[in-house]
Amino acid sequence: MVHRGGRESRPSDVPEAESSAPVRVTLRQTLGLWLLFALVLAWPFVLNAAWGVHVGFGDVHLYRLWALDGVEHGRWPVLDFDWIYPLGALVPIALLSPWAHDQIYESLFIGLTLMMVAVIMMAVRDRIGVRAAAWWLLFFLLLGPVAISRLDGIAAALATVALLVIVRRPRLATVLVLAAAWVKVAHAAWMIPLLVCSRRRLRDVLVPALLMTFLIGAIAVALGAQSHLFSFVDGQSGRRLQIESVAATPFHLLNAFGRPSGLYGNIQLAAWEFIGPGATRVAHILDVLMPVTVLAVGALTLAAVRRSRMPNHELLLLSLLATTLALLVFNKVGSAQYVVWLSSPVVASFALGADRDRVWRTIRGLTLVVAAGTQLIYPIGYDALIDGDAWAVVILVLRNAALVALLFVTCRTLWAASRPDRAALSTSTDRDC
């Protein structure tokens, strides 16, 4: 799928995981990974028992109520009424609906996500190596409960599988990315880097995407959901500036320095938002700035692909990461679970090999900092953040600064790859003279 400037991929363009023999893993390393997985599983309960922290499983309770409404009254989201999620998000919710009458539904949903995390851990270990699998688990541990109790975790798992198979099965990768997008629409933005970096855009990206879209549309019509199919598009339009978002940082600082900014508890969405003219104006600006930034990343990637100064698979991962970061940094909502979107391109970067590690080590480290900072904000410090406690505000500012730094590093790397070769420019100038 990936190429260098329209030419056939060279061996250096192919990820190590796809082009070499299976990774050798010792029993000790495998046991270490399963121990780390056990920590991911146990950590939410440790939070609850040791500190009495609300573990942030509220959304799973909401999923159960939707499933219960479907089982008892035959009213399903998207099928019978507008919904904030795409149709694909209904699949895991409805899959567990036989248990919707009991609290076990919530445990089963979390168990489903954890099972996907474990399966991908083993796939990453076998295809890329133990370091990548350990990073994957450490990320989920540092991000905490929201990583395993939201639809975002399922979407991230599908996207990660897509990147694991993208070299040998590019069409399957496109289908998996679209499947992730029909669970959480943010992954639809990945289609831009996939198109830009593809060697066979029609065969590997456009045709599978159109077929997948047609299939989803046919299913929607068969289920009678066509009138609500795209209701998620407007689902976020009425949202205000949420307190976890990067753009909310100035309003937190104003609060800290004694200039109160209005806070509003959105009970329906279980979120806290800033209100007032300034916050409303910022939210409207972000509605425009976010898609513009995503398109700018796509344009920068296209220029870098044409220069052919970097392995194209690495350009794809950088572009996917920069696109995801644009969706986070310029998002007026910025919920904690959105951070899990970062995991897929970063864990896939381990396949690039040790010689490509210099920039990616910085990216991986900053991503772990973002994950840990996000958990400290939600669920651990959420009440303190609402109250304007200094320590919570400082952590939020640092987390948001790390997100901006990540976006800067990825875009700077793409920019360096897109710039003209100075030697070629010098030669061209000499010839003109």
UniProtKB/TrEMBL annotation:
Protein's UniProt name: DUF2029 domain-containing protein
Organism (species): Aeromicrobium ginsengisoli
Keyword annotations: Membrane, Transmembrane, Transmembrane helix
Domain of life: Bacteria
Transmembrane stretches, start-end: 31-53, 104-124, 136-166, 172-193, 205-225, 282-303, 366-385, 391-415
